[in-house]
Amino acid sequence: MVTTRLDLDRIRAAREVIDPIFLDTPLYQPDALGRELGCAVSVKLETANPVRSFKGRGTELVASELAAQGRTAAVCASAGNLGQALAWSGRRRGIDVTVVASRGAPAAKLERIRALGAELELVDGDFEMARARAVDIADERGVRRVEDSLDIETCEGAATIGLELASDASSVDTVLIALGGGAMATGVGYVLKTLSPGVEVICVQPHGAPAMTRSWHERRVVTTDSYDTIADGVAGRYPIPEVLDDLLQVADDAVLVHEASIVTGMRLLLERAGLVVEPSAALGVAAILEDRDRFAGRHVATIVCGSNVDLDAYHRWVGA
Ligand SMILES: Cc1ncc(COP(=O)(O)O)c(C=O)c1O
């Protein structure tokens, strides 16, 4: 039995709270993509919703809990997608949301956070600096700080993807999951290891932001001094110990991929599947590209987890 901070009954109950617009997302096989990669590839499409990423599943839980407690404000640090999702979920429930982000985050993400009505504070520095500033704001204002991957609701929301995979993807051998703070990997991984223990769970991070993957391999928190990757959604330097403990229970492997493979993955998702994705959502395809023999002939599912991308950069990367 897999024991983590997560609980199957709570994850099942979460489905009743999350706006259905985020649930029961398509799972299908773009044949041309599979032919290109030499294995059967299913994509779980988490981008066709108002915030264009899977993060709405978790923020729906957070915001409904805040509303039930009569709270009217919350703050979070975000690389860009959690902030949009919390802004969306908060706005519908009368919760004032403040998002702290790096000035270097993709402009499209920052614009969308503002457009969704959140207060946006930018820091000069990376995501970890934004995290530190969010702690200060929460203390100053006495409001709830939403800490992605540590707050259990963010993991439970992501875990509902696992419920859908477990019921719809019976023939899948392996699920590839982009790894950032770990909410998605620990959530989806927990459900798969509980309901479909034969399915292999592989986490994917860029070489340029390897802290959590290194931590998984060394079974202790390993931090880095900096990160450098186009996959902004998964970039961090300080893994959260509780999340690492959970990841150690549910992941079969954690691999690192190069930036060039991420770019090729984005291009293939466009050309062979008609999908515009942000770099973090191409990590799974990048992992297949870097180890074709490992996946040859298998049925691999990858979660296409976000499509918030600056168009100029996107065109530069994919040459489209
Ligand atoms: C598009 C995208 N992919 C992957 C991740 C990583 O997810 P997690 O932080 O749950 O590991 C994020 C996080 O925000 C994201 O926005």
Automatic annotation (TrEMBL):
Residue stretches making up the Tryptophan synthase beta chain-like PALP domain: 23-306
Naturally occurring in which organism (per UniProt): Phytohabitans aurantiacus
Cofactor(s) recorded in Swiss-Prot or TrEMBL: pyridoxal 5'-phosphate
Transmembrane stretches, start-end: none
Alphabetic keyword roster: Lyase, Pyridoxal phosphate
Name of the protein described by the UniProt record: Threonine dehydratase
Superkingdom of source: Bacteria
SUPFAM superfamilies listed in its UniProt record: Tryptophan synthase beta subunit-like PLP-dependent enzymes
